[in-house]
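Handout, section B. The chain below has 269 residues.
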Amino acid sequence: MATVNRRWRRIARPAGALAALLGVALTGRPAAGQAPDPFSLDATRTKQYANCMAMARKTPKRAHDEALAWREAGGGNAALHCIAVALLQMGDHDQAARQMEELAGAVDETRPALRAALLGQAANAWLIAGNPAAAEAALDRALDLDPHAVTLRIDRGIARASRGHVWEALDDLNRALELDPDRVDALVFRAAAWRRTGSLDLAVEDANRALVLAPDDLDALLERGAIRRAKGDEAAARADWLRVIELAAEGPLREAARRNLETMDVKPD
């Protein structure tokens, strides 16, 4: 089976989930040129929080130590968030996830979207840690708070598929695409789910649609190659995987394409 299946846990791409955690803005969504402040801080503390989060990207150990000191000095939830992100960057994924869950519980109940976003971050940390059951549990709570959050729905689909619950994953991915029909990542993950059920025509339809929306999307190319190989079209699969190698920098996606090609080229005696 093609190595692209690893994406269900995002273990092959931890930097992607980490980037999401490092880019949280006021509402818990990715920042768009706005200094992050999910905790209603004053101007001085907002700047301190933004600096801590930026430091967590580059020097997480230093950020962790400074955030601990800031917490002791009354930094509150903002300091806890920076500690959690620094822990994730340092590779302590389990503790980062627990910290995020604790933080979500500390947020005022009048801010359900923020609580849901933090639980979603905890779930991403659990996925990186290879614990999809804990991720699914966190996402269940998050979706109770924010049922129309497309990214949370996609992530729960990933967690469910990681546990082998592919039909339940499809329920989440179908709902995500009802809410946002042009989400390329949802299309790619749904294509992979259809492939796992043996529904190859539906799988290739989703992969093709993703590539209409984003012609050079590496995940979509990698997945379509897997589907094409499953359908017996090795030449087309090869073309997709060679395109990934052409476009991708060195890293897990390029390595997955290379391994898929090597596996396909090994013929039984």
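Note. Confidence is low (pLDDT under 50) at residues 1-37. Compare this with the example in section A.
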